[in-house]
Amino acid sequence: MNDKELKLGLPFEYQQMTEYFDAHNISEDTQAKNALIERLLKEQKVKTVLDMTCGTGSQVFYLAERGYEVTGSDFSPDLLKQARSKAKKMNRDITFIDGDMRDIKVGKFDAVITIFNAIGHITKIDFEKALQNIRANLKDGGVYIFDIFNLQAITDAVIDDFKMDIKSVVNGVNIRNIQHSEIDRKNGFLISHDHYTIFKESNEPEIYKNSFSLQIYTAKELQSMLGQNGFEVVDQCDMDGNDFVAEKSLNILTVARRV
Predict the structure, then answer these.
(1) DSSP letter string over 56-119?
(2) Exposed/middle/buried for 101, CB within 10 Å: 0-12, 13-18, 19+?
(3) Which candidate in 66, 126, 197, 214 could, as Cys together with 190 as Cys, close a disulfide (CB 3.0–4.6 Å)?
(4) Does domain 12-150+218-258 bear CATH number 3.30.2000.10?
């Protein structure tokens, strides 16, 4: 299967039942990750930010509360609907725009961000398209900050450790998600399999199964792709803020400058 034919798919909560998105994607360490992103933005003297994969707005609201001028965009109308509802409840005047990171044109910003493995949901060819488009939405010298799993550090033991069995409650509905993953090292795919059980009052449980792949990279691959598409790498670190170690860091958080 070549890159043009590949369909990576999306997690279940991105598609059919987006009301469960926050329960699955917002965790106790989200604030710490947002704080790291904000620190990197501050180091680059950023004032205006475009979050091109904002989802329900985790990073957007965090940064807006700290004085940044932030715009959010996403390809999911349902997730944006939640983000706009949150903004209204918080009495925040924040713009959220329907659009795809590969072609949306919003303006010129000090920084563009795509966080929590967002680039993994598009193929390598489409990531190059996205890089060109991200560059077009940046001011001269602007920065692009993003993260992705580090292919070089994803061992079989790590894959085994990725197994999840998560129980949550959303609007009185009990949800259980069991997930296991596998790795295609040759093509750089992290393939995950979800089994959702949703308990609604006295009704029979609803069962949903879904599989999707993430395109993941080594740090050197990212450096090469960024260099070929008009960026220079300023920094690469782990998602916890520690120094990046190619064989050990599970995530690559990259800061790249438009040149």
Answers:
(1) TTHHHHHHHTTT-EEEEEES-HHHHHHHHHHHHHTT---EEEE--TTT-----EEEEEE-SSGG
(2) buried
(3) 214
(4) no
Distance CA 171, CA 200 (A): 10
Q: Considering only residues 68 and 170, tell me which one the structure prediction assigns the higher pLDDT.
A: 68
For residue 150, count other CB atoms closer than 10 A to its CB: 26
Show the 3-state SS of 109-147.
EEEEEECCCHHHHCCHHHHHHHHHHHHHCEEEEEEEEEE
3-state SS class at 157: helix
The mean predicted confidence, pLDDT, of the chain is 92
- The yes or no reply on domain 156-214 and CATH 1.10.10 is no
Higher pLDDT among residues 62 and 30, named by residue = 62
Question: Residues spanned by CATH 3.40.50.150 within the chain?
Answer: 12-150+218-258
- pLDDT mean over 112-129: 96
Per residue in 164-210, pLDDT (tens digit) is: 998 988 888 899 999 999 999 999 999 999 999 999 877 789 999 99
